[in-house]
User: What shape does this take?
Amino acid sequence: MEDLKVVIGSDHGGFHYKEKVIEYLKSRNIPFVDVGTHTREACDYPDIAKAVCERVISGKSNRGILICGTGIGMSIAANKVHGIRAALCGDTYSARVSRAHNNANILCLGERVIGEHLALDIVDIWLKTGFEGGRHKRRVDLIE
Ligand code: RB5
Assistant: This one.
């Protein structure tokens, strides 16, 4: 696994899964920063997406994880930021290929859409998979 520096954030809709992903990160000694939310009270997902994206763009973190009810709001917001490639994944194949082909630097998950164990498998595969480069680098460069 590359040298991972993870930043994680959720709104209230993704709060429970954020706690679960943090347990996973701790169990594997993967360094992370939690930008919130820190309670179950309703909050606005674009603010959290912005905080996670800023850390990734600055290089303080090299991977971001964003969780909301569907993952959709987070992915729409994150992909507004230049240099962010946020992948909303609901299956492990997409999680792996979002890294191998798209060099996704943010993973988005929907707590109200997928089960907890699937979410954790997706996180595990997404963090372990490297970018293949080659023809995929040309395509990712074209996005930029
Ligand atoms: C919050 O109710 C919900 O809209 C949010 O978590 C997310 O699903 C938005 O895309």
User: Anything to note?
Assistant: The mean pLDDT is 97. Helices lie at 15-27, 45-58, 72-78, 92-100, 116-128, 135-143. The beta strands are 6-10, 32-34, 63-68, 86-88, 106-110. Residues 11, 13, 45, 68-70, 72-73 surround D-ribose (CB under 6 Å).
